Amino acid sequence: MESLRITGLEGKDIENYNLHESKKFSTQLRKISKPTLIVANKIDVPGADKNFVRLRERYNDMIVVPASADSELTLRRAEQKDLIKYSPGSELFDILKTNELSQKQLDALDFIKKDIMGEYMRTGVQFAINVTVFKLLKMNSIYPVANPEKLSDKKGRVLPDLVLLKDGATVVDLAKEVHSDLVKGLLYAKDLRYNLRVPTNYQLRDRDVICLINASKK
Questions:
Q1: Where does the Obg-like GTPase YGR210-like G4 motif-containing domain lie (predicted)?
Q2: For the chain, which residues make up each domain, given as ranges?
Q3: Is the model's pLDDT at 140 over the cut of 70?
Q4: Residue 191: partners with Cβ closer than 8 Å, 6 or more residues away
């Protein structure tokens, strides 16, 4: 229905569409049913910046993200060895052990800092994932916890889990994702960010911290 409304074809029988109308409708339907972005990888290759500009101009109705997967992999491997401090998607990284890095490795990190992050703010890999999940697919990140005071699970781990749910999902939907048994006897939930008691049909928001309350827990 949304595709029909946007294309202005609501009152016309689909069997009577001409070629232009069929293309217009199918294009809009694809955009809604299969949201897409373009990841312009290998932005670290000489001349790639010009190709990136051409891509943006050619696909000006789509999101085009410049990315360097090779740079991201380099940073993650260095971070795993405690050579640098870096969080995926971050705009910066800090070198921790300069004396353990070769000149070639230092040059590579300098290139990433100046030519990739300096020009495009980040490597683009995590950013592309975030845009896909939260903007295109309209997902919300929800943190379910068992202990409302410590914001932890039953083992004492603080905010151990993250559940991705579609925008408009309710407390019941969260319970189904965590464990199907939680739906049985589900009474309400506690929104721990705002210290509110919310009903089972409450629509969850991004970054909500939720404690599910069922008959057995009460």
A1: 39-147
A2: 2-34, 40-133, 138-214
A3: yes
A4: 197, 198, 202, 208, 209, 210
